[in-house]
Specification:
Layout lengths: L9 E3 L10 H7 L6 E4 L11 H8 L6 E7 L4 E5 L5 H5 L6 E5 L7 H5 L12 E9 L14 E14 L25 E5 L4 E4 L5 E17 L4 H15 L22 H10 L8 H12 L17 H9 L3 E4 L5 E6 L2 E6 L2 E5 L1 H9 L2 E2 L7 H12 L3 E4 L6
This protein binds succinic acid and cobalt (II) ion.
Cobalt (II) ion binds next to loops.
């Protein structure tokens, strides 16, 4: 039988093994997977920067600095995002405040020198060295970071609390701009001394508070573009290389049965025009194309009504013979898929019935004569209030 693998959460480093294990083992067992406290990761650590140097740097107009004061009595957090001045530091209380400066490695060669210890990682994966200075009680509150971080204690002591519970709640407080967690129940707590280093993968709730005296922490942060950023940039990159003449084409077109419908032939043509679109679910492609094509090349959009109409007011007008005229700048199309029928109106999607979608797409002027479902009435009201359908009470027909 294979022995059960155990992953200690705390190890001891040495000059020859700063991670307390080989980089290969760290990457295999901890990197992006689980937190690790490495005691003595940097033996006899001397901070490459003094608190006064950090305060000086924080006052540079282009430095990315934040001064955070925690008013414990009122449970309020004050964030001064700079540019900071000496006067800001003169006003700080005796405790419960911290200064954080990002990208210190770009300003200070000695701080940048710390990065040579992280040569086991691709250099382009490293974002920056953020340095914090805190008086006792100072910190940024419990939060979650989206990136891996190595929190190296530089001066004094910091109390760290983390939760390695994968089900720990991640909801953020709305009243504080620091993205602090509403709820935080630590599973592990430690006091770090200079040279100790805490590694946290993304998404691990943590809270670091300066303990006893002045405290400096060097955070070596990674960067990982979001899938949204990667997708947006790749799309821009591909788009830049495509010539104008390559366009949506439909030489195979047959007479339209339902002229407003984005049917499956459209999806096939899109997949031909965009090879990577073949990997997307049909519903996603349909939904994107419906939104895209109904706002494509629209120079104007109808303005919503100043005074939205109530449902019963619309019902009364329709009952009295009012007609609904499509606004000339409204563009409509619809599609049906597994999730049901969608009407697209100038980039917005509305779930509806094929009958109403078709009617709205095909008739510039409509007088709903059949009994409408409640959801259909709600959609008409939305389209009237958004300015896409104009109410006409005269008898004149075009
Ligand atoms: C710090 O206060 O130095 C660390 C901030 C963090 O937890 O990301
Ligand atoms: Co953090």
């Amino acid at each position: 039988m294979k022995p059960i693998q155990s992953y200690p959460i705390e190890v001891r480093g040495s000059a020859s093994r700063p991670l307390g294990m080989s980089p290969a083992r760290f990457l295999r067992d901890y990197w992006q997977k689980r937190p690790l406290l490495i005691r003595n990761a940097f033996a006899d650590f001397q901070p490459p920067l003094q608190p006064d140097d950090l305060a000086g740097l924080a006052c540079e107009p282009t430095a990315l600095a934040r001064l955070i004061v925690h008013d414990e009595k009122r449970e309020r957090w004050h964030v001064n995002s700079g540019p900071l001045s000496e006067a800001d530091f003169a006003r700080t209380p005796d405790r419960n405040w911290t200064l954080l400066v990002q990208d210190v490695d770009k300003w200070d060669a000695d701080v940048a020198g710390l990065l040579q210890h992280f040569g086991f990682l691709p250099s382009w994966r490293i974002d920056d060295v953020m340095v914090s200075y805190a008086e006792p009680g100072g910190g940024v509150g419990a939060h979650v970071d989206q990136y891996d971080v190595f929190l190296l204690q530089g001066l004094g002591q910091r109390h760290w609390a983390i939760s390695d519970d994968p089900l720990a709640p991640k909801a953020c407080r709305q009243d504080v701009e620091l993205k602090q967690l509403v709820q935080f129940e630590p599973t592990h707590e430690w006091l770090l001394d200079p040279g100790d280093m805490l590694y946290l993968p993304p998404g691990v709730p943590h809270d670091g508070v300066a303990f006893g005296g002045p405290c400096m922490t060097f955070s070596i942060g990674m960067r990982a573009p979001s899938q949204a950023e990667l997708t947006g940039d790749l799309a821009d990159y591909i788009a830049e290389q495509l010539p104008e003449e390559l366009r949506y084409a439909d030489p195979d077109l047959k007479p339209a049965r339902l002229s407003g419908e984005i049917d499956h032939g459209v999806l096939d043509r899109l997949k031909q025009a965009l090879p990577f679109a073949g990997a997307l679910r049909d519903e996603l492609l349909h939904d994107w194309f419906g939104r895209f094509i109904t706002r494509y090349r629209s120079a104007h959009v109808p303005a919503p009504l100043d005074k939205p109409l109530a449902a019963d007011a619309l019902a009364a007008k329709l009952a009295a013979g009012a007609r609904l005229l499509r606004h000339p700048w409204s563009r409509l199309a619809w599609s049906r898929g597994k999730a049901g029928c969608m009407l697209y109106v100038n980039g917005h999607a509305h779930a509806t019935t094929p009958a109403l979608a078709q009617q709205l797409c095909e008739q510039r002027e409509l007088m709903p004569d059949r009994k409408l479902l409640a959801a259909e009435r709600t959609l008409l009201l939305t389209l009237v209030n958004d300015g896409h359908l104009l109410l006409r009470t005269s008898r004149r027909r075009r």
